[in-house]
Design brief:
Elements: H1 10-14, H2 28-40, H3 44-57, H4 64-77, H5 81-94, H6 101-115, H7 124-139, H8 146-173, H9 177-190, H10 196-210, H11 214-227, H12 234-251
Amino acid sequence: MKKLFLLFSLSIMYAGCSGTVDIVNLSAEEKLQHGIYLMEDESYEEAYNVFQAIVLQHPGSAVVDDAQYYLAKSKFEKGEYIIAAYEFSKLIRNMPASEFIPEAQFMLAECYYLLSPHYALEQKYTRSAIKEYQAFIDVFPTHGKVPEAEKKITELNEKLALKEYSNAVIYEKLEYYNAAIMYFTNVEETYHDTHFAPMALYRKIKLLLERNDNSRALSEASKFLQKFPNDSNVKEITAIKTTLENKISASK
């Protein structure tokens, strides 16, 4: 349950005002209410300044964690996700008993999620988002937002898998086959829950066949059939496996 603020009439505060309020003599609770009013009015920078004033001027207040949370939220709403992430992290690190911790942890992950770029670019924010969503799930497994966090982890892992898979395809086209096989292997092993995993293993098998590495190709074909029995390429891989088994048996 959110903290009950001291009775404070916004209608009185704003009666006869031209849109600005002198907050110097307001209590921490009244400043908080004013900051929330500014956020609802989408005056995010002004709200940030009010919440920052509470954190700096009323460090022992019962609502200082509220102020820190909304301070971060105001930056988030303004689209300044790096600063917002820093401020949410401060709340999590410095006020671990706050009732806002679950929401702050989720919002920290959201910041990195929104910073996650196109798959072809550097993916440090993508990895940070996955890490923070997973921390949220691990610490608050019964929270109502866990399904959303799990869905976004899946989405972000698909992006990382796509990046690795695309790198493998590029190396294959350049005829750097060892590098291509390495990247395909990484996709299949690291991102085994993504739809790129069977695609990567399929192309790895085809590459091994082209290089006449029949023993490894057979091993990978067996693995493919075990791991992805419902994949659309199962019929072809089954035929490859049978052919290779016959060929290897005949050579002995």
